[in-house]
Amino acid sequence: MVDFRIVDPAGRQHHVTIPAVEVTDELLEVGAPFDGSSIQGFKGIEESDMVMRPVLDTAYVDPFFNVPTLALQCQVYDPSGVRYDRDPRYIAEKAEQYLIDSGIANTAFFGPELEFFLFDDVRFHSSPESSFYALDSEEAVWNTGSAQNGPNLAYKVKTKGGYFPVPPTDALHDIRTDIVKELMNAGIRVERHHHEVASAGQSEINFRFDTLTKTADNTMLYKYIVRQVARRNGKVATFMPKPLFGDNGSGMHVHQSLFQDGQPLFYDEAGYGKMSDIARHYIAGILYHAPSLLAFSNPSTNSYKRLVPGFEAPVNLVFSKGNRSAAIRVPVAAISPKAARVEFRTPDATANPYLAFAAMLMAGLDGIRRKLDPTELGFGPYDKNIYDLPAEEKEKIQAVPSSLESVLAALEEDHEYLLEGGVFSKDFIRSWIHLKKTTEIEPMSQRPHPYEFHLYLDL
């Protein structure tokens, strides 16, 4: 079989499967038709015919089907043969072309670090008269006294105590290794894997950086493989930023750098953190546009339950060489010219990587084009614990917005930088804001929350 796959604006994958004997040269060139009105964020029912055309260098053999299946990522077209403006992969490709056309650089490298949880049981329900969620994990600290599944073998992960202990405390080593093997078989270079800080199965697997669109492809494949291997092992993987109250959430720290004809542009031996002026301008662009940028890098209501002080959350719009509460960290350990990069720590993996990486690049390039200075704008550097600063100094530090509503409002006011070179369109931005408001913010705001009964039942 041959599997054709596309990604919708929200970041979910969809697929259609075709017997290999029916996959002709003509089909590969013309593409396979599908109903765009059934894809959230695409077309209305009155103009629903669309076409997906495979990108051949994304092919890999999917190991999770009983029948050998070749999977291919696709580009989305109108029936007339014109690339579809709301196809997230097209937006990523346009961002890379805009970089080349700008003359600033011809290559942007992105390297995301995705964190996730592996749970043993996930239950949730929402109806007019009831609502709940319940999570469980063999590692969870709340199971120290449990005897539901036979003898309790202890070695649970304490709250905020999960940063790479050896087994038996780390009960997920073999599953992560299984994920790594499948990632490598799919052509993704994996650098390391380990348990993360939170209890109840938080994990991280790092893969090697690549160019913008290729890294977005790899990110989608990574999430698919993590979920499938988890399911194969009787577990549930989630990239939700904050599934657990009172413990660390999951982020997607994004390392990024620019090159011109193979030469790194972010390195300067004499600069702060060995960063060049171009890198400083890039940092300033991301921090300056962060309130609107988060509409793509942190696009869920759950994102803002992670972005609160006290959990190593990168809530402060500053840059630093080592402060993990800063939105941008400048890595300084074992840095060579080609390894010089900036790490945007605020994003999470509910982001569509094509849109998020493209938006980050556009914000950074705007900073370079306008020669924005992060220090003059009040963004630091801050190389000390921000939480320990005197109150009057803390007040000078800008923080990220506290809700999805806030970042969407910021996007409505600040999106011109995204329109440069036709990378994003006003139509797409309007559609994105409408999609988020109607499918996430409004449904959430209309439902009672279980904790509200704790707060208000007796008033």
TrEMBL record:
GO annotations of cellular component type: cytoplasm; membrane
Class of the enzyme per the UniProt entry, highest EC level: ligase
Molecular function as annotated in GO: ATP binding; glutamine synthetase activity; metal ion binding
Top-rank taxon: Bacteria
Binding positions for Mg(2+) per the UniProt entry: 113, 115, 196, 204, 253, 343
E.C. numbers: 6.3.1.2
Annotated compartments: Cytoplasm
Residues given in the record as ATP binding sites: 191, 207-209, 255-257, 324, 338
Residues annotated as domain GS beta-grasp: 1-81
Modified residues (O-AMP-tyrosine): 387
Keywords tagged on the record: ATP-binding, Cytoplasm, Ligase, Magnesium, Metal-binding, Nucleotide-binding, Phosphoprotein
Cofactor(s) of this protein: Mg(2+)
Subunit structure: Oligomer of 12 subunits arranged in the form of two hexagons.
Name the record gives this protein: Glutamine synthetase
Source species: Alicyclobacillus acidoterrestris (strain ATCC 49025 / DSM 3922 / CIP 106132 / NCIMB 13137 / GD3B)
